[in-house]
Amino acid sequence: MEKNTDTRLAIMNTTYQLIAEHGIQKASFALIAKEVGISKPSIYYYFDSKNDMIYQLFEQFCSEISFQHFFNAEHFTQEQFSTQLIEVGFQMIQEQANDPYFGNVMKEFLSLAARDDSYKGRFIELQQDYLKGFEQLLLKAADWSLIPLYSLTEKAHILALVIDNIGNFMMLDDTVDYRNIWKTAVQLVFLEDGLHG
Questions:
Q1: Count of CB atoms situated within 10 Å of the CB of 163
Q2: Which of 83, 96, 105, 133 supports an S-S bond with 67, CB 3.0-4.6 Å?
Q3: Which residues bind DNA (predicted)?
Q4: pLDDT tens across 160-181, in order?
């Protein structure tokens, strides 16, 4: 018998929302099943355990905030490179701002990462992907003579740290002009003498 992907998606989406509203501990299979409109044992058809379901949700969450999900190097052109970099950052910021559950779910996963090395390791991997990803992206810009090679790694890391910290601050304060902060960071990277010391 083939598993119903719509039901699985409904379980995942409902769990995401319930984690944001009640926390991981209180998002029980009984509560999830009630919200989805299925029996509690039905969840075991899709997931081996609550831990399995939470980790699969976490992996999906990580995939949706990954560097590659947003900053796909193949989509960048020589003519519009810095503009595209700004716009993709805007898209990332806007997606997070539009998701009312994102901040609370991120806090729950960060709390898990403080106690569980598999979650912690995955978050570290995500951060490393941003550091390396921006470096590869800026190497492409350097190949097109859009930026010089000097301090390229540092510039890439500045972009990674800025976008990461924008995400962190958005969980706490929505009054900061995050779009202009990102735009300024990108513009500084593309200034000929911007970061050359």
A1: 23
A2: 133
A3: 28-47
A4: 999 999 988 888 877 889 999 9
